[in-house]
């Protein structure tokens, strides 16, 4: 917490206006590449949550009745504005998150993809009907918005993850209260401004900044009908349970420990390139990052020689500087936590073949260099925990079934990748791996917006995932009308 007055204090966005939070607790928002304080974010109170939910509830009364094509037109306009502001939004993401500018601009592109998908709401929200379910009786399934939706987002994708939620939620006629990550709240401020500029009516999208109290406020509020959460496993499980206890529909997309397998028939150079990007891009702070690499024994030495050299060649620095690939982790405590994991890995017997700890000493900001452990075992902490850092655990397996068994022993099952040239191996992998998003000969298998973001096991709590048709189902109720139309008068 801080007492500084010089930096900008963020406001909440409620009913179309920027308003001060009703709190005296604030937290600094840092540029993790420099340690500079960018802003102060309020830890808003339950009173602020109540104000936002009241505004969203009032707006719901009219927004749900705005014609679906008109809602779609606002989304088309929003898409245009986001494209025009893509570079500006990317810079905000880099400044508050630390990832390289090219990754940040690409992230904004992925967020825009969600808006494009949501703009298809007139067809996506169509119901269906059957003309003859009994003599002269027909049935029709209609879709309706659920009401006020609460969204809780993590620090690692300040643009894309909120866009997994509010564009489709409002397109389908709901109103929304977003609680962005307190570590990266700045991008959301610009996102809501641009949506208002596109013609979104007051109260449809609101922002309440803060942390635990705001989350609990949304989970407990009787007028919030659904909760979309993305974040860590521990918090996601809590959100899912507490939201469900209050009889809300909840989707919680959570932590990850993604395994990538490289077989002897793979194109090793392409695999090195894809896995370097997957493991060390965004400083390993991606829910789709490769955090465990399982190599077929026969090519392991050859692969590691190329891979380690490529990791050593990575350019580290401020993501705004040209050519930088690896930026900082998000906070000093994340840096310290990562350095502790590196020590733990060594203590538990893994072989440290590239140590990123030195970078932490040499720079301002919260840097950790690319770090690689070999000889990792499934009883080690660095295999088990989601480190969420540029630290890769490497293991060896004699064949694909052994590699798949290693991956399947993790409770976290967001994604998994396979590098191979064999169709039979690809089929074996697809049929036997217990993970929800698979990559074949690529490093980051994050599906485009028209598909569900479909983590398994403890990487997801709920039934309907974010994105794709799941998101339309999640944000709508169904009403089925069975109607008799007596035709006897026409006989
Ligand atoms: P986090 O769980 O710490 O925070 C997520 C949100 O929950 C934030 O808005 C935060 O304010 C709130 N929160 C934190 N602690 C809370 C508590 N005790 N009670 C109530 N609310 C609380 O996650 P993070 O560090 O911001 O983000 C990284 C995590 O998100 C990683 O685990 C990553 O794998 C996960 N993630 C998952 C996906 C996915 O699709 N599965 C996507 C992106 C990120």
Automatic annotation (TrEMBL):
InterPro entries: Ald_DH/histidinol_DH (IPR016161), Ald_DH_C (IPR016163), Ald_DH_CS_CYS (IPR016160), Ald_DH_N (IPR016162), Aldehyde_DH_dom (IPR015590), MeMal-semiAld_DH (IPR010061). SUPFAM superfamilies: ALDH-like. Pfam families: Aldedh. Its EC number is 1.2.1.27. It is an enzyme of class 1 (oxidoreductase). One of its GO terms (molecular function) is methylmalonate-semialdehyde dehydrogenase (acylating, NAD) activity. Residues 18-481 form the Aldehyde dehydrogenase domain. The keyword rRNA-binding does not apply. The keyword NAD applies. PROSITE patterns: ALDEHYDE_DEHYDR_CYS (PS00070). Keywords: NAD, Oxidoreductase. This is methylmalonate-semialdehyde dehydrogenase (CoA acylating). It comes from Lacticaseibacillus zeae subsp. silagei.
């Amino acid at each position: 917490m801080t007492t500084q007055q010089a930096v900008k204090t963020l406001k909440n966005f409620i009913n179309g206006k920027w308003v001060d939070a009703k709190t005296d607790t604030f937290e600094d928002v840092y540029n993790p590449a420099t340690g500079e304080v960018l802003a102060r974010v309020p830890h808003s109170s339950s009173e602020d949550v109540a104000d936002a939910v009241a505004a969203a509830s009032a707006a719901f009364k009219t927004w749900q009745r705005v014609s679906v094509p008109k809602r779609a037109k606002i989304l088309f306009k929003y898409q245009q504005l986001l494209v025009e502001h893509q570079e500006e939004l990317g810079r905000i993401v880099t400044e508050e998150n630390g990832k390289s500018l090219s990754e940040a601009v690409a992230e904004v592109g992925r967020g825009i993809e969600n808006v494009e998908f949501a703009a298809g709401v007139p067809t996506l929200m169509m119901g269906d009907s059957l003309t003859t379910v009994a003599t002269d009786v027909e049935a029709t399934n209609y879709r309706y918005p659920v009401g006020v939706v609460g969204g809780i987002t993590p620090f690692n994708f300040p643009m894309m993850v909120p866009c997994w939620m509010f564009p489709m939620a409002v397109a389908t006629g709901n109103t929304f209260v977003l609680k962005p990550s307190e570590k990266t709240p700045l991008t959301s401020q610009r996102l809501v401004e641009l949506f208002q500029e596109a013609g979104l009516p007051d109260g449809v999208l609101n922002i309440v900044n803060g942390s635990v109290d705001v989350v609990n406020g949304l989970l407990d509020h009787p007028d919030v009908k659904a909760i979309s959460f993305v974040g860590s496993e521990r918090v996601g499980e809590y959100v899912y349970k507490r939201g469900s206890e209050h009889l809300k529909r909840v989707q919680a997309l959570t932590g990850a420990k993604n395994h990538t397998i490289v077989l002897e028939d793979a194109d090793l150079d392409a695999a090195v390139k894809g896995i370097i990007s997957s493991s060390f891009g965004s400083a390993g702070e991606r829910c789709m990052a490769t955090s465990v690499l399982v190599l077929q024994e026969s090519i392991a030495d050859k692969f590691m020689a190329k891979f380690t050299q490529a990791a050593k060649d990575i350019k580290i620095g401020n993501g705004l500087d040209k050519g930088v690939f690896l930026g900082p982790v998000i906070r000093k405590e994340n840096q310290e936590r990562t350095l502790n994991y590196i020590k733990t890995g060594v203590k538990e017997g893994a072989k440290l073949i590239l140590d990123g700890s030195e970078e932490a000493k040499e720079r301002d900001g919260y840097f950790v260099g690319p770090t690689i452990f070999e000889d990792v075992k499934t009883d080690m902490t660095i295999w088990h925990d989601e480190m969420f850092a540029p630290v890769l655990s490497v293991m060896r397996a004699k064949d694909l079934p052994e590699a798949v068994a290693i991956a399947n022993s993790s409770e976290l099952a967001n994604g998994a990748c396979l590098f191979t040239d064999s169709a039979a191996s690809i089929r074996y992998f697809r049929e036997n791996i217990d993970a929800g998003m698979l990559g074949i000969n690529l490093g980051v298998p994050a599906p485009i917006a028209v598909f569900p973001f479909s983590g398994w096991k403890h990487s997801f709590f709920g039934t309907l995932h974010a994105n794709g048709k799941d998101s339309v189902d999640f944000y709508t109720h169904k009403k089925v009308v069975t109607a008799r139309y007596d035709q006897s008068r026409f006989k």
